[in-house]
């Protein structure tokens, strides 16, 4: 793949050689199938198209200095997908079958895994959809699990640098006790208008407040939020926030560094007290926050006074990346090596 400019890859879709598929029919999962076709033949009455029976995950594979390929925390992605399946009544795929599919598709597309220190990685997208025809509002009888991969560059063009964010009140991403804790497409469709508004205003992304009281910090676009103060890592807790695997990993690393960790409601006014803050997720790992503007109320919470990532965010980012690339020991058993 020498013709690819690895250092300047966008975060987008690129055709690779193969995807893998497993069909659910007659109340059981079938054998794994390898496919080179990019499209899915589907009945027009499929439940994924009408009733949102659709779930997806996102994870990455990294090529280390030693040439080995590592996939980060795939068991956690399997568990989160299983949780989503329970939430919207789809059959669960076992962790073993999930792992089999992930490792197979990475191995089949090994030539697309970016080289070490290119700043790029192989993005892995598992997708589970209801394919059975249904006109009444009921779960499907048939499903398709498909996994494709694509090499990607950094999610934000500036890479690991601070970004401005804006609080958007007129739209909610997800309701309390709704589907916010599940990784379903409807949550992302609900974010498109707010995200466009934030971009039109010149911000990197939008911030949502809790849908019930509009008082507490919820999610940051499609990412979890965290703040740092008094040697404490603080991240919101609510029934509408997707449990980020990156955030879970950062909480553990913060504890390893001797920091306290708090998961609790974070009122908007507490933004004034944070020494550092960031948005975190698979795509960006950490996007340090420069400031959060509340345009509606004429407030601006400046987090980074010098416009640069803070020392704790930087240390956490470097530590997590070092584990993903195999530059530091994987003491928590987070990495799976592709044989």
TrEMBL record:
Matches recorded under Pfam families: Aminotran_4 (PF01063)
GO biological process: isoleucine biosynthetic process; L-leucine biosynthetic process; L-valine biosynthetic process
Domain of life: Bacteria
Cofactor(s) for this UniProt protein: pyridoxal 5'-phosphate
GO molecular function term, any single one: branched-chain-amino-acid transaminase activity
Positions of post-translational N6-(pyridoxal phosphate)lysine modification: 183
Enzyme Commission numbers on file: 2.6.1.42
Family matches, as SUPFAM superfamilies: D-aminoacid aminotransferase-like PLP-dependent enzymes
Gene3D superfamilies, A to Z: 3.30.470.10, D-amino Acid Aminotransferase, subunit A, domain 2
Keyword RNA-binding: no
Keyword Amino-acid biosynthesis part of the UniProt annotation: yes
Chemical reaction(s) catalysed: L-valine + 2-oxoglutarate = 3-methyl-2-oxobutanoate + L-glutamate; L-leucine + 2-oxoglutarate = 4-methyl-2-oxopentanoate + L-glutamate; L-isoleucine + 2-oxoglutarate = (S)-3-methyl-2-oxopentanoate + L-glutamate
Alphabetical keyword list: Amino-acid biosynthesis, Aminotransferase, Branched-chain amino acid biosynthesis, Pyridoxal phosphate, Transferase
Pathway in which this enzyme or protein is active: Amino-acid biosynthesis; L-leucine biosynthesis; L-leucine from 3-methyl-2-oxobutanoate: step 4/4; Amino-acid biosynthesis; L-isoleucine biosynthesis; L-isoleucine from 2-oxobutanoate: step 4/4; Amino-acid biosynthesis; L-valine biosynthesis; L-valine from pyruvate: step 4/4
Purpose of the protein: Acts on leucine, isoleucine and valine.
Family per similarity comment: Belongs to the class-IV pyridoxal-phosphate-dependent aminotransferase family.
PANTHER family membership: AMINO ACID AMINOTRANSFERASE, BRANCHED-CHAIN-AMINO-ACID AMINOTRANSFERASE 3, CHLOROPLASTIC-RELATED
The name this protein goes by in its record: Branched-chain-amino-acid aminotransferase
Native source species: Bacteroides fluxus YIT 12057
